[in-house]
Structure formats: structure tokens, C-alpha cells
Design brief:
heterodimer; A: alpha/beta; four-stranded antiparallel β-sheet; 11 helices; 14 strands; 32% helix; B: five-stranded mixed β-sheet; 5 strands
Chain lengths: 309, 371
């Protein structure tokens, strides 16, 4: 990332709450128009990192810059230029969708038309509903809509698709991609591998307040895995030692859904060996297939645990 | 309109909508006090049933003067109690009669003289004492007594008037129970407004609305101003509604200055709104805020002098009432609205309320958390 186009720059950010170190020396940069994802489990320090950039928390150490300005000292100057969707949608319960959007629009010198924002978030039919009567997904969409009401240069979305159904997620992703195409920069946090893979230009994997790895999804995968993955329904009777002895296999892993994964440098040899092994114990492997290792595998490799836990 | 004025306006309107749509707060701040006024006002004044009563002090003590008090024009309109002048004036001060008519000495002999064709040089004066704080009642009584006197004069046809009415005023100290209660209920309504204002504020912090607002260019003073503006607006509505209802149903009119009344209403609203901010500073959740409000509201209500005169309380309760802020607001509003015996001089009430407001704002500025 060339420093000339960086619109977010974080160097050595640290934040502690009492004895707990929430963010422990985080450094990254985000370029203009990029969709950058902070990926990690709950408690990894993603939200604290984002809230320091939003001017909602003061870092103990480190330098945080947005659009060339200090995120702490110039917070007031930055507020009109950023959009924020907190992790929990924070809405006036007894105002309608249209009233909340108009209220937030009034906070800015210049803003998009409230009607456009409501339409873009697909809330046209619910415009006169009180926000307390909205579904979780609708509330989430309204919260994202409020982040866009001032047509910000930088948009912070903290877990934006939590609670959304698949169709709503998909349409939010399209919206975010559209923002990026229009030159807006998006920093989002997520614990969804799918969201990171589908949406983010670059990803930083966070755990225990640190960034473990950063790059495009392809870079991360190829950095950690030269192998491919052969997966199949776990065969009773085929023990790990026998599987590890198959041609090309470097590692065996069992997934919760009754799947076994073989990381291999020789896909053809592994499959031939597997079929022979299964035949030998009188079985046939179900749901047999090949895939490239995913971000999930990278996460597991880095942290030793699955992100879904 | 400048953009910060517009922001203040939009936020105030949004707060107002949130208030109106919050049924329990509307109930406690507006409906409940109104029910109180109507209910207790009706109980104490017996709407529609009771007749106006007047005291009749007959200094003449002749049969002629007795005829006047039992004439249909008087006895048909009033319940008449007769007695000595001092006794009747005391009865009026105590609120047992609404007015006192004094028939002058020499009335009987004057009538006898008129009937004999010897009119007096000047008409004899009938003193009529009314209470200026009960304007409407006073006017009604003055009208009826005036008509009775005019009727009497006419019955002496062809002669110059024998009697005339001398209007006198008597500031009653013992005001009627309803008149005592109405300012107290207005004080209660203002207290409810302030205390219940704590709940939406805690709700906004708990729902992270305050945090979300911190990420916008909205300034905190704008937020606080809008919050105050909404509460003041509701306070004005409360005062107007209660005063109108008390005036229409029970004939209670404001004796003091409207400007002073408006000042006391605003000051009282500020005192209890700032007390609400203190509650919001220490209540972590919406539930704990409503519990704290209920714990505060009933003792404040019943240990203050808003419902019962403080001198009528036992000594220990008087000592408690002295410590309750609502006592001072009730006292100030009572003095301005209906008169009566003050608990403390008005400047003292105002100073106590202003001082508490400063203290409450100070505490909340120190302890209120936005996140």
C-alpha cells in the first residue's frame, strides 16, 4: 500500500481497560476506496480499534490518523467526514424510520436526501414504522443507512450483517461494493469468513488485541498453505495414522460436521490412496471433493481454534 | 434559521415526539395530576351541590333588618349564617363562609323613618366583605347582594335610596381545600416531569444512542439544550392545562402576577429536571432508573406540604417536610396562584429552588456518563 493514498493509518495503537489489554499494539493502513476487514472472534479488539478511530475512545498509546488528521485531537473536524454504524444498532425507539433519518441528517451541514437513504437501505415500506417495531435485520440496515446519511468519505461498519438474513446480507454487500466503487473507504469488522472473503479487498486477522496476519484473502491462503484440501465424510475405521500415510498428505483435520480434511501436495495420489484404503475396510467415502484452503483454514492455523466458536 | 438553531429545533421536536409516544410518562406527568385535580377538587368543593354561603352580621338587630336576611333575594341565593361581626369575619378567614354582609346600626330606624316619609340625608352603607383571590365567587356574591339591595331600595318607591353597598375586601388566610391543592398538584406534575425525564435519558445511554450521537458533529450543549427545551415545553403544557381546568371547574383564579407564576413554573421544572439528571447519572439501567424514580416520587409527594398544610402536620413530619424540595415549589406556586399562609417567604422558596438546581446540575455534570 503506497502511503500517499492511505486514508487510515494506525501505528502501535494500544488500549487497556483496567487489567485487560483490549488492543495491544496494532498497526495497519487502509487506502482510499478500499474495503478493509478486521476479522476475528469476539473480544479480539476489533471494536475497540474501530472506536478509537471514530473518536469514541482515546488510545493509551499509538498514532491514529484519518485523512491525514489525528483521530483524537481532530475528532471534531473528522466527524462530518466519517460515517459510523456501531455494533448494536442505536436508535430512538419511539421515532419512525423517516424521523430518525431526518434527525441524523440535521446533524450535518450537508447530507444526502433522507428519502434516498431510506430507499437505498430497502426500508421504503417501513418508513413510518417506529424503530422499536423493526426486525433485527431492518434495524441493522437502518443503522448502516444512518452511517451514510452525511455521504462520508470513510465508513466504519462494526459487524454490519449480524442478524441479517442471507438476502439482506447480499444486498448490503452490493451496497458496500458500490460505495467502494464510488471512492468511499470502508473499514468493517466481522467474524464471518464468508463476509471477509466475499467483500474485503484486504483482511487483518485479529486475536487477543493483536493483528496476526494481514493481506488479501489469496495472499493469506497461499502464504500459509501450498497444499490443497481433500475432504470427505469421515470414514469409521480409517484412523489418522493410516490417513497421514497416504501419498502427499501433510496433515489431517476433522471438522465438526463429520468431515475429514486432508491437506495434500498430491491430490491425485491422495484420492487414489483414500479410495483404496476405504475399499480395504469395505466402505466408500461419501461427499468426496477437493478445495483450496480457505480463510477459515488460515485462521485455524494461526489461532489454533475455529472462528465460529 | 442557523444550522445549530435548526439542529436544536429538530432534536427538540424529536424528543417531544418520543415523549408523547411514551404512554407511561405522559400518564404520570399529565394525566395523573389532572385526575388528581378533578377528583380532589370535586371531593372538597362538592361540585354542583354546595351553595355559596355568606355570613350575616346584623349590627342593627331589629325585626326590619331580620326581614332583609330572610328575603328571597338573599336566602334564595345563599346559605346564610348569622353571627357577630368578628365571628363572621373569622368564619370567612377560616373558609367557612365565602363573604360577609354587615347590616349597619340604625337601619331599622331609618326604614321606619322612610316609611313615615322622612328619607335619610344619605343612604346607609352595607359593608360587603369578599375575598379578592376568589374573583369569580366574589363577583357573583357582589352581584346578588347588589340586586337585593337595589330591590329593597325600589320597595321604598318614590324615595331616595336608603341603602348602598360598600365593597370591602378580606384576604382570607385559610384558603379553600381545592385552592390549596391545585398549586400543590402543579408542583407534583413538575416533579414527575423532571423525575420521569431520567428514564428516557438512561434508555438512550443503554441503547447506545448517546454513544452514537458522540460520533456525529452534534454538540453536547445542543443535546442538553434540546432536552431542557422539551421538558420546559411540557412544563408549560402542564401548567396551562392544570390552571385552565382548575379555573373552569372550580373557579380558582390566579391572584398573583402571571410573570411571577411563569418564573416559578420554569424554576420548578429546572429544579426537578436537574434532579432527574442526577437520577440518570447514578442509575445504570432503564429498570433501575424507573425503580429509583418510584422510590423518590412517593416520599417527595407525601412528605412535602403539597397536599396538606404543613402546620397541620405532627412536629416530626414538619421537620421532614422542611427538607423536601417539593415543599418549597408547592409553597411558591401557592403564594403566587391563590395566596394563603406562606410556609416560607417567597424569596426563600425561590432561593432554595435555585440553589438546589445549581447543586443538582453540578452533581450531574460531574457524574453523568455518556457511554
Amino acid at each position: 500500500m503506497e502511503s500517499g493514498t492511505s486514508v487510515i493509518r494506525v501505528e502501535g495503537a494500544r488500549k487497556r481497560y483496567g487489567a485487560v489489554v483490549a488492543v495491544d499494539g496494532v498497526t495497519f493502513e487502509v487506502g482510499r476506496g478500499e474495503i478493509f476487514g478486521l476479522l476475528g472472534p469476539n473480544g479480539a479488539g476489533k471494536t475497540t480499534t474501530v472506536e478509537m478511530l471514530e473518536g469514541l475512545r482515546v488510545p493509551d498509546e499509538g498514532r491514529l490518523q484519518i485523512l491525514g488528521l489525528d483521530a483524537v485531537r481532530s475528532a471534531a473536524a473528522l466527524k462530518p467526514r466519517i460515517g459510523v454504524a456501531l455494533q448494536t444498532p442505536s436508535l430512538y425507539p419511539r421515532l419512525t424510520v423517516a424521523e430518525v433519518v431526518r434527525l441524523f441528517a440535521s446533524f450535518y451541514e450537508t447530507s444526502r436526501s433522507p428519502e434516498d437513504v431510506i430507499a437505498a437501505m430497502g426500508l421504503g415500506e417501513r418508513r413510518h414504522a417506529l424503530t422499536k417495531d423493526l426486525s433485527g435485520g431492518q434495524r441493522q440496515r437502518l443503522s448502516v443507512g444512518l452511517a451514510l446519511v452525511n455521504d462520508p468519505e470513510i465508513v466504519f461498519l462494526d459487524e454490519p450483517t449480524t442478524g441479517m438474513d442471507p438476502a439482506a446480507r447480499r444486498s448490503l454487500w452490493d451496497l458496500v461494493k458500490g460505495l467502494s466503487a464510488a471512492g468511499r473507504t470502508i473499514l468493517l469488522t466481522t467474524h464471518s469468513m464468508e463476509e471477509a472473503e466475499e467483500l474485503c479487498d484486504r483482511v487483518a486477522i485479529m486475536d487477543h488485541g493483536r493483528i496476526l496476519e494481514m493481506g488479501t484473502v489469496d495472499e493469506l491462503v497461499s502464504r500459509h498453505f501450498h497444499e490443497r484440501t481433500v475432504f470427505f465424510d469421515t470414514i469409521a475405521g480409517a484412523d489418522d495414522a493410516a490417513l497421514e500415510a497416504l501419498p502427499g498428505v501433510v496433515r489431517v483435520r476433522h471438522e465438526d460436521a463429520g468431515h475429514t480434511l486432508l491437506y495434500t501436495s498430491d491430490v491425485a495420489g491422495t484420492i487414489a490412496g483414500l479410495l483404496a484404503l476405504a475399499d480395504g475396510i469395505g466402505r466408500e467415502p461419501g461427499d468426496l471433493g477437493i478445495r483450496r484452503p480457505s480463510l477459515e483454514d488460515v485462521f485455524l492455523e494461526l489461532t489454533g481454534r475455529a472462528l465460529r466458536d | 434559521m442557523g444550522s445549530s438553531t435548526r439542529r436544536l429545533w429538530v432534536l427538540t421536536v424529536a424528543n417531544g415526539k418520543s415523549y408523547v409516544r411514551d404512554r407511561s410518562t405522559v400518564f404520570w406527568t399529565l394525566v395523573f395530576p389532572l385526575v388528581f385535580v378533578v377528583l380532589f377538587g370535586s371531593i372538597f368543593s362538592g361540585v354542583g351541590g354546595a351553595r355559596t354561603s355568606i355570613g350575616w352580621a346584623d349590627l342593627d338587630g331589629t325585626t326590619v333588618s331580620a326581614e332583609l336576611s330572610s328575603s328571597p333575594a338573599v336566602a334564595g341565593a345563599f346559605t346564610v349564617t348569622t353571627g357577630s361581626l368578628d365571628g363572621m369575619l373569622q368564619a370567612m378567614r377560616d373558609g367557612r363562609v365565602h363573604a360577609v354582609v354587615v347590616v349597619p346600626r340604625g337601619f331599622g330606624s331609618a326604614v321606619v323613618a322612610v316609611r313615615a316619609g322622612r328619607p335619610p340625608a344619605a343612604p346607609l352603607g352595607v359593608d360587603l366583605y369578599t375575598d379578592p383571590s376568589a374573583t369569580q365567587t366574589a363577583a357573583t356574591i357582589a352581584g346578588i347582594v347588589g340586586a337585593a339591595v337595589a330591590g329593597f331600595n325600589q320597595s321604598m318607591s318614590g324615595m331616595p335610596p336608603v341603602l348602598k353597598v360598600n365593597a370591602r375586601t378580606l384576604q382570607t388566610e385559610g384558603i379553600t381545600a381545592t385552592a390549596y391543592l391545585v398549586p400543590g398538584i402543579l408542583a407534583m406534575a413538575l416533579m414527575q416531569l423532571g423525575l420521569f425525564g431520567a428514564i428516557p435519558l438512561v434508555e438512550q445511554r443503554q441503547n447506545l444512542i448517546l454513544k452514537r450521537l458522540s460520533a456525529t458533529p452534534l454538540r453536547r450543549w445542543t443535546f442538553v439544550s434540546a432536552n431542557l427545551a422539551t421538558r420546559v415545553g411540557v412544563a408549560i403544557v402542564q401548567a396551562v392545562v392544570l390552571i385552565l381546568v382548575a379555573g373552569i371547574l372550580f373557579g380558582i383564579t390566579v391572584v398573583g402576577s402571571w410573570a411571577l407564576l411563569a418564573f416559578c413554573v420554569l424554576l420548578g421544572a429546572m429544579t426537578f429536571v436537574s434532579l432527574g439528571y442526577v437520577v440518570a447519572s447514578f442509575a445504570p439501567t432503564e429498570d433501575s432508573a424507573s425503580q429509583l424514580v418510584s422510590i423518590l416520587q412517593f416520599p417527595l409527594m407525601f412528605l412535602s406540604g403539597i397536599f396538606f398544610a404543613i402546620d397541620a402536620m405532627p412536629a416530626w413530619l414538619q421537620a421532614v417536610a422542611r427538607l423536601v424540595p417539593l415543599t418549597y415549589l408547592g409553597d411558591a406556586l401557592r403564594q403566587v396562584m391563590v395566596g394563603g399562609v406562606p410556609f416560607a417567604p417567597l424569596p426563600v422558596d425561590i432561593a432554595v429552588l435555585a440553589g438546589l438546581t445549581v447543586v443538582f446540575f453540578g452533581i450531574s455534570a460531574r457524574y453523568f456518563r455518556w457511554q
